[in-house]
Amino acid sequence: MSRVTDPEVLAFIRRTEESYPGDSNQASAAENRRNYDAMCAVFHRPHPAGVTAADRTLGGVPCRIYERSDPVAGTVLFSHGGGFVVGGLDSHDDVCAEICAATGRRVVSVDYRLAPEHVHPAALDDVTAVWRALDGEGPRLACGDSAGGNLTAALCLRMRRLGSRMPDGAVLIYPGLGSDMTAPSFDLNAEAPLLRREDLMAYKGVHAPADSTDPEARPLLARDLTGLPPMLIVTADVDPLRDEGTMWNDALRDAGITSTLRNDAQLVHGHLRARHMSKRAADSFAAVCDWLAR
To answer: How far from chain centre, in Å, is Cα 18?
Structure first.
């Protein structure tokens, strides 16, 4: 098993475990959501100065829109993580506000429908509806963490299939992309802090059937990635999902797509919330913001 020895990361893990019971992923969706929201609230930071946020509906989907007082042209569509079961506008509120502050770009966070009440393609349909409702000048970028990374990749695949406007660039942060879970990281990091293999098994089949062959539910099943936009793939080294990001990056490069892989040593799944506790996590988040700004 990969080990975490960095004191700052260990402190983040302890703080997370204190507010999010280890068996939450085995609980009912309602209980899991309560636990997850409470944990996210522990880490929530005030919005940076100069950033405002407003809740609106775009394409019939609830969203939260972040803007800086001195904006830079362009929009970042953000899809939150949470295994398609937990999370929402509040769970990643400060992350989105800080992306807006760092890049100057408008950030649109999507409150997509959650499983198990709403199964695939509900979440992707919501993300697609918001994407199509975007306006304004400058580049349009897509970004998401974990399940949101899946939705970001799937959005690109869907837009290519429909011949619609593709994101100008995409960032996938420790994404879950629907592999068969046989890559080495699933064994090496089976007992990783904050996300174990058994947690992934609890989520498996909730969003889409485990045997689904739809690449818009399981992007790693896509046979052809030509025509997709440039991407940044960020993985955490101590994460069972690590190798899914590597596999996606390799497939993109094989298709001739410009792709950058950043694997962060010592970091664990969910490290976006550690960006104010850990230099490693702060550096990773800064790299994401820098890529989106460029």
So the answer is: 23
The candidate with the shortest Cα–Cα distance to 73, out of 99, 106, 97, is 106
In this model, does residue 1 exceed pLDDT 70?
no
The class (CATH top level) of 7-293 is alpha beta
User: Cα separation of 127 and 293, whole Å?
Assistant: 22
Strands 61-68 and 106-110: antiparallel
**Interior angle at CA 145, CA 141 and CA 150, nearest 5:** 80
Nearest to 12 by CA among 232, 292, 285: 285
Residues near 265 by beta carbon (within 8 Å), at least 6 away in sequence: 237, 280
Q: Could you give the dihedral angle defined by the CA atoms of residues 16, 17, 19 and 22, in that order, rounded to the nearest 10 degrees?
A: 130
Q: Is 50 helix (H, G, I), strand (E, B) or coil?
A: coil
Percent over 70 (pLDDT), the chain: 99
DSSP annotation of 48: P
Give residue-wise pLDDT tens across range 216-240: 999 999 999 999 999 999 999 999 9
Quote the pTM value: 0.97
Torsional sign, CA 103, 106, 108, 109: positive
Could you list the active site residues?
146, 239, 269
Closest CA relative to residue 251, chosen from 189, 178, 168, 148: 178
Domain ranges of the chain: 7-293
C-beta separation of 233 from 245 below 8 A: yes
Residue 2 confidence (pLDDT) = 60
